[in-house]
Amino acid sequence: MPNPSYCIIGAGLVGLNAARYAQESGGHVTVFEQTDKVGGTWVYTDEVGKDKYGLDIHTSMYQGLKTNLPKELMGFPDFPIGEQEESFVTAAEVLQFIVNFTDRFELWSCIKFEHHVVRVTRLMDSDKWEVIVKNLPSNTYETYQFDFVLICNGHFFKPFIPEIAGSDLFKGRRMHSHDYRCPEPFRGKNVVVIGGSHSGVDVAIASAPVANRTVLSHRHTSQLNIFNDKVIQVSEIARIRENEIDFVDGSKHPCDVLVFCTGYQTCFPFLSVDSGIHVEENHVKPLYKHCINIRYPSMAFLGLPFHSCFTLMVDLQSRFCIKFFSGAKELPSQEEMWADNRRDEEERAARGLLGKAAHMLDGDLQQRYYDELARAADIEPLKPVLTKLYDACITEKRNNMLTYRSNVYRIVDDENFVKIRGSGVSN
User: Fold this and answer.
1) What are the tens digits of pLDDT across the range 248-305?
2) Contacts of 220 (CB under 8 A, 6+ apart)
3) Residue 383, exposed/middle/buried by CB under 10 A (0-12, 13-18, 19+)?
4) CB-CB contact of 243 with 192 (8 Å)
5) Which SUPFAM superfamilies match (predicted)?
């Protein structure tokens, strides 16, 4: 297909990377971005709730955030994040990296800012996709047709808040980490943070110096190594009362502010029911290699797998999809893609990776996934040193959540890295 047309939803890191490869392959590219900036979730705003157009604020960025992976894993293979000495960089530095990337690959002209994608529908009579978009400043609707659709709008924008006994009785403030920006509103309050992952730990540590009391509730079987005496660690919540929380371990703590750091629901509200895709407990299916819509393989979802070298992974996924979409390589038959999908799901089921874990790259699955993408599309693979560095960083984080971001790493070759600052040397 000469000069195919590509619809790319989202001008964050993922969408811009996909736009680069689609454009380089000779495609005609249109990127729809709901806001007036590139960067997606890396754009900080004080706003929470709704924006000026009445749409949900997309970003979850908060003050003081630094990456939880080193920059050696945050850049693209041929476009590193920067030459700064520190490995763990700030959100502002990541955003500048995204702006620099947009400049370097001349992507500004293909982005339609303040354009909200309303509906994506399959046109059965032409094998194209109809995309209806709202031009927000003019309050008008526009209709387009594309050969390919790459969905890159992320999945960290619809908060998940679990049902907990007694929630309706609580008289304090309830909020999700999606709306957390800084700890100042917690000053003098009794704060309970639910969730022991990245955001939960960050919010607990940030709130402890200003709060009257900070309690971190999580499912881990032992105490997290955050080494902060001001953060009280407890088990899961048993019941919520008017101004107090009961925990499974038998403890009780007063609570003025309850912060849910409980993740997000994966959803694509713009997809029509005839898209061939459905989402079940964050499991997007059916997909070939967690990317390509098996029923209509001219649509792809980038960035779904997690516990990954995310930026490098989406670069690999972009190259994988564009290799097929551009016609440079023929896709496997639908029968072959279905068979591959069944094998993957059977192995994941045997490992207990179902529902919300259906796209998780657990243990050896990460490097295997990268190798499978590269082999299937005949593209440059990711070097083994990258997953080795990822695994080492996750271990460091578990061992000391307060100081792991002060470590400095350097990649030596395709297999080895060194830690040039921090305790000891890893490779």
Assistant:
1) 999 999 999 999 999 999 999 999 999 999 999 999 999 999 999 999 999 999 999 9
2) 196
3) middle
4) no
5) FAD/NAD(P)-binding domain
Q: Is 111 left (phi over 0), alpha (psi -120 to 50) or beta?
A: beta
d(CA 76, CA 59): 22
What's the whole-model pTM score? Answer: 0.94
Residue 256, beta-bridge partner list: none
H or E element, residue 175: strand 173-176
How many CB atoms lie under 10 A from the CB of residue 138? 9
| Beta-bridge partner residues of 122 | 129
Residue 260, token pair as written in the block: 């849910």
Q: Which H or E run contains 386?
A: helix 384-399
Cis ω for the linkage preceding 384 (within 30 of 0): no
* β pairing state of 148-151 and 5-9: parallel
Structure tokens at 22: 């689609």
CA distances from 371 to 57, 94, 321, 384 (A): 36, 27, 15, 10
